[in-house]
Design a protein that fits this description.
With 104 residues, the chain is α+β, with helices and mostly antiparallel strands. Helix content is 35%, strand content 38%.
């Protein structure tokens, strides 16, 4: 099992939950952690400051391309961040649980 974390952000709780539920239904992820935070960023030549919901999505590397494509399709942002973080180490128990959920 090659576990990865995928990070993205959403404009609000409703869109984050909606997209995450769809990813779970399609078995593209095993879990998501959502957290509200402040975001400061450049957009159309000015600095914006908004609340966003960050999503840490846990999955397996073989799901990466489909997950990325589905996120691009469903995401409410014009230019979402969809970043992949490869995990070097993961405890066996969690890895086994991920395999059962994703490939069961």
């Amino acid at each position: 099992m090659e576990a990865i974390i995928v990070y993205t952000t959403f404009p609000d709780w409703e869109s984050a939950r909606e997209v995450v539920r769809e990813l779970l239904k399609r078995k593209l992820i095993v879990c998501a952690n959502l957290r509200e935070h402040e975001a400061l960023y450049w957009w159309e030549d000015r600095i914006e400051e908004e609340k966003e919901v960050g999503a840490i999505l846990k999955t397996e590397v073989s799901k990466w391309k489909e997950l990325r494509d589905v996120l691009l399709e469903l995401h409410p942002y014009d230019v979402p961040i969809i970043s992949r973080i490869d995990l070097d180490k993961l405890n066996r128990e969690y890895s086994e649980w991920m395999a059962r959920v994703l490939f069961g």
